[in-house]
């Protein structure tokens, strides 16, 4: 595995506290206004972020692949049980994240920055798909925002 900046350390350096605040607001909106699919996805992603931060703070990258794989399994399970379609895209984005870190663990990615960029991009896809799915649930396209 390559040594260097991690995903969350790079994100915190780039955004400061803006990202944790946005993720907390997104989580709260999903819990308050979301349906069971939204809440399940939000719980899985919140647990993944917390485990990610704990693993990176410990400077142990060995458990990261396991966390990504567990998150992938959880998101695929949610996608298969949900009547909505966006969880399939969320799970597909998580598959990309898992592949990136599996390639890094196998030593097939030479530079740490490459792993961070690819992992960050795939993670942004996951959060983007989740936000789009949550917004589509919150907005009734015929009559405006749902109460």
Q: What does the model show?
A:
The protein has 147 residues and is mainly α. Helix content is 76%, strand content 3%. A two-stranded antiparallel ribbon has the order 1-2. The protein is globular and about 50 Å long.
Question: How is the secondary structure organized here?
Answer:
Layout: H1 7-15, H2 18-33, H3 36-57, H4 64-81, H5 86-105, H6 112-138, E1 139-140, E2 144-145
Antiparallel strand pairs: 1-2
Helix pairs in contact: 2-3, 3-4, 4-5, 5-6
Uncertain residue ranges: none
The total count of helices amounts to 6
| Cα separation of the termini | 48 Å
Placed side by side, the strands forming the largest sheet appear as: 1-2
Order of helices and strands: HHHHHHEE
- Rounded to an integer in angstroms, the radius of gyration calculated over CA atoms is 16 Å
- How much strand? under 5%
Q: Give the overall shape, derived from the CA principal axes.
A: globular
The percent of residues in helical segments reads over 70%
* Average pLDDT score: 83
| Structural class estimated from helices and strands | mainly alpha
SS elements, strand count? 2
Instruction: Tell me the major beta sheet.
Output: 2 strands, antiparallel
